[in-house]
Amino acid sequence: MLQYVSGHTVTSADDSDEYLDIINKALEETVRSAAPGTVPVYFLPFLNYIPAWAPGGKYKRNAAWVKSIVKEAAQRTYDLAESKIGEDKEEHAVIPALIKSSTAKGTLDLERHEIMMFGLAMYADVYAKAQEEIDRVTCNARLPTIDDRHALPYLECILKETYRVSSPAPLGVAHETSEDDEYRGYWIPKRTTVITNIWLMLHDAEAYPDPEVFCPDRFNGLYANQEDPRNIIFGFGRRICPGRRFADSGIWQAMANITATFDICKARDAMGNEITPPGTFTSGLVRFQCSITPRSKQAAELILNKLSEQA
Ligand code: HEM
Q1: What local confidence, expressed as pLDDT, does residue 78 receive?
Q2: S-S: 299 plus which of 79, 156, 250, 295, CB 3.0-4.6 Å?
Q3: Is 235 in the pocket of ligand 1 (CB under 6 A)?
């Protein structure tokens, strides 16, 4: 995502990349503090009138701190993008191109692929089927591109199921009604906080039978018309996520490339026994072990070639 947005190549997924680090921090703190019900002012509106320095005003101090991190992340990535203008890679990156044409600033987001990795490590049959589908299209001679998307329906099912099982924003973004309203007999006064329970919609057993099971086939063949989780996970109405197509194609591309070139399976302990990840969630999936290796010498070469193109 950083590559597309700012023209910056991330070479390590740990905390050693300063841009990845600050963006992760901004995202984590925003999600943590914006989650509905996390601060007392949601239940005790009078706290809104307490100054930040007074007892009870801690949430305001925290909000100011989070805002400063978000601003810092935005400024530093903007400066980064600006510094890329004139480089060869710049023409492929959105923000340097936008700055160059002096049109606008942009926002950044970053997705995580843990859920997908988890699903793929846990379900060897699903992964093998996806690899077979990609191999048929690319003949192992090249990496899949976005133009191959229509030819890879099973991969699409895996992506839909990944979105469904764990949507990145399970409670969406809270809104406030601007006028009195009524919904299915419920009276909703003006200024009510409305929270969309995206997680529940995607785990509704009537819409998605056995909702706890990771099953890409629920979107396959005869079930191709099953409600697409993309109609839900990005929110609704006029405040629907404006980055949805960008996010979706970026995630698809990462998933297609990883599946084409790596074998992902359960890790093994010192005795050679498979370690089955517990699949425990808190605010996200708890870290787990798995084994990721290039599928073949040819696959490793494809990855190295791609990296050297980007370097
Ligand atoms: C899988 C990735 C993503 C998910 C699941 C997601 C989900 C959401 C959701 C649920 C909302 C709230 C919509 C509502 O109020 O009903 C939202 C808002 C927003 N998203 Fe995303 N988003 C993703 C990626 C992105 C990306 C990549 C960008 C920018 C490049 C982005 C930019 C925004 C912005 C600016 C808003 C606020 C829109 C507004 O309030 O008018 N999002 N997103």
Answers
A1: 83
A2: 295
A3: yes
CA separation for the pair 103, 42 (Å, rounded): 38
Indicate if the pLDDT at residue 258 is higher than 80.
yes
DSSP-derived pairing of the beta strands 193-194 and 175-176: antiparallel
pLDDT tens figures, 186-222: 999 999 989 999 999 999 999 999 999 989 999 998 8
**How far away, in angstroms, is 172 Cα from ligand 1 center?**
9
The predicted model gives 115-122 an average pLDDT of 62
Cβ–ligand 1 contact at 199 (below 6 Å): no
Q: Which two tokens stand for residue 140?
A: 């192992």
Question: Domain-by-domain residue ranges, the chain?
Answer: 1-110, 112-311
Q: Is 265 annotated as a binding residue?
A: no
Long-range contacts of 225-232 (CB under 8 A, 24+ apart): 228/160, 229/160, 229/161, 229/163, 229/164, 229/167, 229/202, 230/160, 230/163, 232/167, 232/198, 232/201, 232/202
Does any ligand 1 atom lie closer than 6 A to the CB of residue 246?
A: yes
C-beta of 249 in contact with ligand 1 (< 6 A)? no
56 sits in the region (left: phi over 0; alpha: psi -120 to 50; else beta) called left
CATH class for the domain made up of 112-311: mainly alpha
Give the tokens for residue 179: 């006028």
User: What pLDDT digit, counting tens, does each position of 273-307 carry?
Assistant: 888 776 555 545 566 777 888 888 888 888 888 87
